[in-house]
C-alpha cells in the first residue's frame, strides 16, 4: 500500500484503477455462473483471487478492488453459509487483494443490493423505492464496517442504480468516517440527460456528495463507454474528483447470464475522460489486464 492516502494522490494526479475481477477469474478458467459470482472463490479458491489481483497489478493498476461486490449475509445464507462466515469472507477479500497487489491502494467493493439478488436488478434499481433508504442502510452497514475493519483504504460504492441507494450509502459512509467513492451506473436518455438506471437525473444524485468529507470521488462504472463523457459532466456538480471505469460496451443478459454484443473500450477515449476531470480511471466488466495496461500507458 502507498504510504499516503488515495485522496492525496487524486489531488495531484491520476490513479489507474484495475478492471473486471470476474472477467479475469473467468479468463483463468473459473466458472462464475453461480449466484455468488466471484465471491464463491473467496471460499473455494482464494489463491485464484490473489492471482487475478496480481495480473491487474502487473498491468499497471494502482488500486486493487476486492472480490466482495456480490457478498451479502442473505446471499451466503442461501448458499449454506452463516453471518460469521460472511464476515470472514469479506475480511479475507481485503487480505487477498493485499497479497496480490501489495503496492496498491485497496478498495473494498460495496456492490448494490441488486447484485446480491443475482437477477440483473442492479441495472434497473427497481427495488430501491420499495425497500427505502433506511432498510438499504441497514443492509449495507455490516459489509462496509467489515471492509473498514479489515484495513481497506477506501470503499468503492459502485454500480449504484438509484438515488435512494446512493443516499443510503453516503449516509452510512458519513457515519463510518471511511473514505469512499460513489459510482453510479447511468444511461443517457433521448434528450441527452444523464440518468440513473432508475431514471432519476444523475446530476442531482452526484450533488448529494458535495458536502461530505468522506467522499473522495464520484463518477460512473459498469456504464457504456459512450456514456462516460456526459456522465462525468453531470458528476462535476459534486465538486469532487471524478472516477470513470466503464464496461466493455457489451450488455448483460440476466436471463442467460451472458454478455452480448461487441467489446470496445478504446484507450484513446481516456484522454477525453481526463479532460473532463477524471482522476480515477480504469475498467469494469469485460475489461481485462491488457486493457488496463493500455489505459495506464495512455495516462502515463
TrEMBL record:
<keyword id="KW-0808">Transferase</keyword>
<dbReference type="GO" id="GO:0033528">
    <property type="term" value="P:S-methylmethionine cycle"/>
</dbReference>
<keyword id="KW-0479">Metal-binding</keyword>
<keyword id="KW-0862">Zinc</keyword>
<protein>
    <submittedName>
        <fullName>Homocysteine S-methyltransferase</fullName>
    </submittedName>
</protein>
<dbReference type="GO" id="GO:0008898">
    <property type="term" value="F:S-adenosylmethionine-homocysteine S-methyltransferase activity"/>
</dbReference>
<dbReference type="InterPro" id="IPR003726">
    <property type="entry name" value="HCY_dom"/>
</dbReference>
<feature type="binding site">
    <location>
        <position position="284"/>
    </location>
    <ligand>
        <name>Zn(2+)</name>
    </ligand>
</feature>
<feature type="binding site">
    <location>
        <position position="222"/>
    </location>
    <ligand>
        <name>Zn(2+)</name>
    </ligand>
</feature>
<feature type="domain" description="Hcy-binding">
    <location>
        <begin position="3"/>
        <end position="299"/>
    </location>
</feature>
<dbReference type="InterPro" id="IPR036589">
    <property type="entry name" value="HCY_dom_sf"/>
</dbReference>
<dbReference type="Pfam" id="PF02574">
    <property type="entry name" value="S-methyl_trans"/>
</dbReference>
<keyword id="KW-0489">Methyltransferase</keyword>
<dbReference type="GO" id="GO:0032259">
    <property type="term" value="P:methylation"/>
</dbReference>
<dbReference type="InterPro" id="IPR051486">
    <property type="entry name" value="Hcy_S-methyltransferase"/>
</dbReference>
<dbReference type="GO" id="GO:0009086">
    <property type="term" value="P:methionine biosynthetic process"/>
</dbReference>
<feature type="binding site">
    <location>
        <position position="285"/>
    </location>
    <ligand>
        <name>Zn(2+)</name>
    </ligand>
</feature>
<dbReference type="GO" id="GO:0008270">
    <property type="term" value="F:zinc ion binding"/>
</dbReference>
